[in-house]
Amino acid sequence: MLGINGGEAIILVLLALFIIGPERLPEYAEKLKEFVKAAKRYATGATEELKETLGPEIADVDWRRLDPRQYDPRTIVRQALLEDDEPARPAPQRPRSSLTRLAPGEPAPFDTEAT
């Protein structure tokens, strides 16, 4: 509730009682009630307008499945590492250039004496 805990809410109510005073409190309570009703009408109207705009397909959406708070990055990485991917393909062989380093004892590609 807006980051206010129960103790803070009680202090705010008591502070409002002292600042507003008991004679004007019913008037301000009525204004608060009208504000809450207007906010509820606005939220309901926005929801209905959204449903009307998006059409009947919006009712079929499973919002819990799309909630990003349910995804744990550790679980996602663990599942990705445990998945059986297709077997690794060998890297394509590139032709050697004359600048390629050779293993000891390996003949050079253009060494005619080794053949």
UniProtKB/TrEMBL annotation:
Subcellular location(s) of the protein: Membrane
Recorded topology in the membrane: Single-pass membrane protein
Region (Disordered): 80-115
Keywords recorded for this protein, A-Z: Membrane, Protein transport, Translocation, Transmembrane, Transmembrane helix, Transport
Primary localization: membrane
Top-level taxon of the source organism: Bacteria
Gene3D superfamilies reported in the protein's UniProt record: 1.20.5.3310
InterPro entries from the UniProt entry: TatA/B/E (IPR003369)
Protein's name in the database: Sec-independent protein translocase TatB
Species this protein is from: Kocuria oceani
